[in-house]
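Lines hold sequence, tokenised fold; shown next:
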Amino acid sequence: MKIAIIGAGNMGGAIARGLAQSDLNIKIAVADLAQDKLAELKAEHDEIEVSTDSKAIVVDADVVLVAVKPWLVEPVLKGMLPSLNLSRQIILSIAAGVDVATITSWLGDDNAVVFRAIPNTAISIHQSMTFVSHNANVTTAQVAQVEAIFNALGKVAVIEERLMGAATSLCSCGIAFAMRYVRAATEGGVELGIYPNDAKQYVLQTLRGAVELLEATGNNPEVEIDKVTTPGGITIKGLNAMEAHGFTTAVIEGLKASK
């Protein structure tokens, strides 16, 4: 399988790097007008084909992944149309807010196979939570093909497109929300007298432990919380202080605002 990635920016470059480090038997080509970004990719992974000509790299591609800013998707797709073979190629966009129906209309072919994916930046280290939706033209084999790409880069869920906004808030924006918690907890650790870098490392390991516990047990988070909130203990006092300052409400309202 050959995947042609159009755009070598933060997400396009991360996907290319992640795939290059995966176990997938896949050829990777990347096109971008910024030659410095292409040179950087090539220096890191010589097996990646790079070009400033997107039309050239898509000709023999099985999957064409469009990783450009949302307002550039239409001109980029229309510029590549003469080189695309929509009867056999999968068109896959990671542009936020650009729905499958719109992409299909820009291609000018109601039979085109179109997927939309929302990954997050952890894709470069194979830890993305990626959501995928598609139009009605896809086959089971094509869904499996796209799932294989993103399973090599973390975890993937195929969902209804109506849920893509919510999924974006929860996991694409959500990675920034999680990092903001790490920053806040680190700052709190410093105020308590712990050196900054030590505090950050302690918080990261604590979060790893929380994730591993929830995955291993399958429990609702509240079940695990109950195990450390003894009556009159320090944990319940800390949790209640956080709630008094709007912790849960702040998280929920942040997710709703970002949708």
Summary: The first strand starts at residue 2 and ends at 6. The longest helix spans residues 196-217. The radius of gyration is 21 Å. The chain has a mean pLDDT of 95.
